Amino acid sequence: DLWGPLILCLALAILLSVRAPADQEILVFTGVFVIVWFGAAIVTINAKLLGGTVSFFQSVCILGYCIFPLVLIAFIAVFVGKKVYIRLPLCIIAFAWSSYASVNFLSSSHLANRRALAVYPLFLFYFIIGWMLL
């Protein structure tokens, strides 16, 4: 079921490209799309190489669904504008929500003794997306 993560990724890319300068809309859309899919693939490959028992597509699907809070904040940011004092706390909450949901998923895939090695790329993945929202 990769349709849900695809729709969320497209929504995030569209919302961020709407706020981008006119000459950078295509670059922002492409950048978001590539970062989401390659980032999810790299985090999944890392988990698999560390001995995780989850399938590749299942992990990519879960990581894609976990960007929902970030998509929600991107939607709110369209209406809020450039008010960083509103967007920053919302981005931190969305980052924590996405990370918490993903860490719970990864810890259930038998990575208990290598959890820090699997969680660091996951935090980095969501941090980059959250940074793009700011």
Automatic annotation (TrEMBL):
Residues of the signal peptide: 1-24
GO terms under biological process: endoplasmic reticulum to Golgi vesicle-mediated transport
Domain Yip1: 1-132
Subcellular location: Golgi apparatus membrane; Membrane
Primary location class: Golgi
Keywords in alphabetical order: Membrane, Signal, Transmembrane, Transmembrane helix
Membrane topology value: Multi-pass membrane protein
Annotated transmembrane regions: 32-50, 62-80, 86-105, 117-133
Similarity annotation: Belongs to the YIP1 family.
The protein's name: Protein YIP
